[in-house]
Design goal:
Order of helices and strands: HHHEEHHHEEEEEEEEHEEHHHH
Oligomer: single chain
Mean pLDDT: 96
Distance between the termini: 46 Å
Structural class: alpha+beta
CATH superfamily of the largest domain: Butyryl-CoA Dehydrogenase, subunit A, domain 3
Strand order of the largest sheet: 3-6-7-10
Shape: globular
Number of domains: 3
CATH class of the largest domain: Mainly Alpha
Helix content: 40-55%
CATH topology of the largest domain: Butyryl-CoA Dehydrogenase, subunit A, domain 3
Strand content: 15-25%
CATH architecture of the largest domain: Up-down Bundle
Radius of gyration: 21 Å
Number of helices: 11
Low-confidence stretches: none
Length: 386
């Protein structure tokens, strides 16, 4: 139970879900919170070390089954994402890109040989994966991707580039999506393959406790068994994005909760004009509105998680969650910053770090506008994307 839980939302969780949440919260308190401000300021994070620690707890690919994965529920995975992002969005991104994008793509579309090769070490954090879909000139329009795959005898040749790829500078394998003669196909590409080069992207103002890279593919020769046999067409990578967006629906709530709890503690102890900030009507109105939005966001995330566990979650429903929860989390972070005043921009408090991170979360894995169009198409039956 947290100070912002007005509606006794904990009662909606079962004992196992609360236990998983508590374990992840302790890990974040012990391993992330003491260091994350410094990681953010320096733009560096011990990604491999963290991955192994997360792997020991079974957090990597935790909602997948077999191959060393924990086989947890969608709700349990969501709660883990919430607690991770309460530490930092970049830390949650490490876990969700590993499990819900790279591992999920191999688990869902890969061959048995690919699953046995990659998933067990990825589940322990000994191997790190990334997901190569976004390109320098084709972010929200993956159908226009320029990366090409062509057959050369029994092999494949990949040529092109991917940008803004989380985990790429430390990854061992990338799931690369390319356009082939028969349509969009996916490949498991070892990043030490000849012709692959990775450049870390620096000078970010957001998600600085996360490693991001650009992948260049210069006629990379791959054996036939690098192809993900079950992935044919653009629906395959989009299904992976839907999987990852579910974690974002929950994760954004973690950043918002950390902002709210920090602000409540500050406002009840900081005195202005002879009384605590929390004693002023305008401050209480801000706190009340933010807490109400947080409750609504949690109820939405929980409903989507229960639908996912029942096998009934649809992509446009995930778009509702991503659009609402990230948008409201960012609004909460900005409002909390106003209550802290100048201290709100200080690295001594997590508010501005969360706000900066949420600016990225707002636009990655589908901008707000894209999710509005997904929802609009569901409501009207009309495609407004082009």
């Amino acid at each position: 139970m947290t100070p912002v839980d007005l509606l006794d939302l904990d009662s909606l969780l079962d004992d196992e879900e609360r236990q998983i949440r508590s374990v992840v919260r302790r890990l974040v308190d012990d391993r992330v919170r003491p260091h994350v401000a410094e990681w953010y300021e320096q733009g560096q994070v011990p990604a491999r070390e963290l991955a192994r620690e997360f792997g020991r707890l079974g957090l990597l690919g935790m909602h997948l089954t077999g191959y060393g994965c924990a086989g947890s529920t969608a709700v349990a995975y969501g709660l883990a994402c919430l607690e991770l992002e309460a530490g930092d969005s970049g830390v949650r991104s490490l876990v969700s890109v590993q499990g819900s994008l790279a591992m999920y793509a191999i688990w869902r579309y890969g061959s048995e040989e690919q699953k046995r090769r990659w998933l067990p070490p990825m589940a322990t954090g000994e191997a790190i994966g990334c997901f190569g879909l976004t390109e320098p000139d084709h972010g929200s329009d993956p159908a226009s991707m320029a990366t090409r795959a062509r057959r050369d005898g029994d092999d494949w040749l990949l040529h092109g580039g991917k940008m803004w790829i989380t985990n790429a500078p430390v990854a061992d394998v990338a799931v690369i999506w390319a356009r082939a003669e028969e349509g969009v196909r996916g490949f498991a590409v070892p990043l030490d393959a000849p012709g692959v080069s990775v450049r870390e992207m620096r000078r970010k103002m957001s998600l600085r406790a996360s490693v991001t890279g650009e992948i260049a593919l210069d006629d990379v020769r791959l054996p036939a068994d690098a192809l993900l046999p079950g992935a044919a067409g653009l629906k395959a990578p989009l299904s992976c994005l839907t999987e990852a967006r579910h974690g974002i629906v929950w994760g954004a709530l973690g950043a918002a909760r950390d902002c709210l709890e920090t602000t409540l503690g500050y406002a009840t102890t900081r005195t202005q004009f002879g009384r605590p900030l929390a004693g002023f009507q305008l401050t209480q109105a801000k706190l009340a509105d933010m807490a109400v939005e947080w409750q609504k966001g949690f109820l939405l995330a929980l409903h989507l998680g229960r639908l996912a566990d029942a096998g009934r979650l649809r992509p446009e429903q995930v778009s509702v969650g991503k659009l609402n929860n990230v948008r409201e989390a960012l609004a909460i972070a900005r409002q909390c910053r106003t209550i802290l005043g100048a201290n709100g921009v200080s690295g001594e408090y997590p508010i501005m770090r969360h706000a900066n991170n949420l600016e990225s979360v707002l636009t990655y894995e589908g901008t707000s506008e894209i999710h509005q169009l997904v929802i609009g198409q569901r409501l009207t039956g009309l495609n407004a994307f082009a």
